[in-house]
Design a protein that fits this description.
The protein has about 325 residues and is an alpha/beta fold. The chain has helices at about 1-35, 50-65, 80-90, 100-110, 145-155, 170-185, 195-205, 215-220, 270-285, 285-295, 305-325; strands at about 40-45, 70-75, 95-100, 125-135, 135-140, 160-165, 185-190, 210, 225-230, 255-265, 300.
Length: about 325
């Protein structure tokens, strides 16, 4: 009996080992045959914006590394829902990718009563590309030069100031509503379609305040046409060392960061996810690319692992759920 038991156990071990070898063989097969045709990166935003430019730059480098064309497919509309649905329903074969922001994955689920995709179950995170530390910007005519002075002035003039966002539930909307809640000030929300409309509105004095990244506002700040009152992130920006952070200014909970991240459909083979991660993070960490396309534009390099990105997304969703609740934002 004992010999029979040992024999069965030996056969079981052999079967398990054979299964593992077969799985490894399948993984190797995926890695060896992919990619054999062009890749598509779906971007839920119009051409010309920061995320589109980043996607095209990464796509160009990725094409050279993989030996296949990489096509950028801009699918703006419906608060990124349109593009997200396309990717969620695409074949999970490593040929459809998505570069998107927090709106798609950690905000929309709290804004919409129903979505045609599941932000957790339908996408596999590959890597968080960069963080965008947002600046709170003011028209020069506003008699406030930092966040403390803004709060003091707003309290003395309730309802007389207004700020531009990129729409209900956008990052600037959530950030300002959180600031209003925590400081007890009253500033009127004026939603615009996007950065190309909101920043010019602040420049023209149509609104007194807005949020933007460094890439879209640095030239205006240096020209004295806008002034930066505070910036997101744990430390001050090297490009704007005189601008204090929200944390320094006493408001660490204001959601003043955005991010770009790379995703694929959830069932994409693990070896393809890892190969994509390896190639993309090499691109991001290349010294020339870092200096020209990340540091010079005020982005903060992340290049996280899929697991690190997943952990970040879970925490970001909790933060945004609170911000959406405070803002009272609903999908338009």
């Amino acid at each position: 009996m004992s010999f029979a038991f040992i024999g069965r156990r030996h056969h079981l071990a052999l079967a398990v080992a054979a299964g593992l070898l077969a799985a490894c063989g399948m993984l190797t097969a995926h890695a060896q045959t992919w990619p054999s045709k062009p890749l598509r990166i779906v971007v839920p935003y119009p051409a010309g914006g920061g995320i589109d430019v980043m996607s095209r730059l990464v796509g160009q480098q990725l094409s050279q590394r993989l030996g296949q064309a990489v096509v950028i497919d801009n699918r703006p509309g419906a608060g990124t829902v349109l593009a997200a649905e396309i990717v969620a329903k695409a074949p999970a074969d490593g040929y459809t990718l998505m570069v998107t922001t927090d709106s798609t994955v950690t905000i929309n689920q709290h804004l919409y009563a129903k979505l045609p995709y599941d932000p957790v179950k339908d996408f596999a995170p590959v890597t968080q590309l960069v963080l965008l530390n947002q600046l709170l910007l003011a028209n020069p005519a506003l008699p406030a030069n930092n966040l403390k002075e803004l709060v003091t002035y707003a309290k003395a003039n309730p309802g007389k100031l207004n700020y531009a966002s990129y729409g209900s539930g956008s990052q600037p909307h959530l950030a300002m509503e959180m600031l209003k809640s925590q400081s007890g000030i009253d500033i009127v929300h004026v939603p615009y379609k996007g950065i190309p409309q909101a920043v010019p509105a602040a420049l023209a004095g149509e609104v007194q305040l807005t949020f933007s990244g460094v890439a879209s506002s640095q030239v205006h700040i240096k020209a004295g046409k806008l002034k930066a009152l505070a910036v997101g992130g744990k430390t001050r920006l090297a490009l704007l060392p005189d601008v204090p952070t929200f944390t320094e200014s006493g408001f660490p909970d204001v959601p003043s960061n955005a991010w770009f991240g790379l995703f694929v459909p959830a069932a994409t083979p693990r070896d393809i996810v890892l190969k994509l991660h390896a190639e993309v993070t090499r691109i991001l960490k290349d010294p020339e690319f870092m200096q020209k396309e990340i540091t010079a534009k005020g982005y903060e390099l992340v290049a996280s692992t899929p697991e690190e990105f997943a952990t970040f997304l879970a925490a970001d969703s909790v933060r945004n759920a609170r911000a959406v609740k405070i803002s009272g934002a609903k999908a338009e």
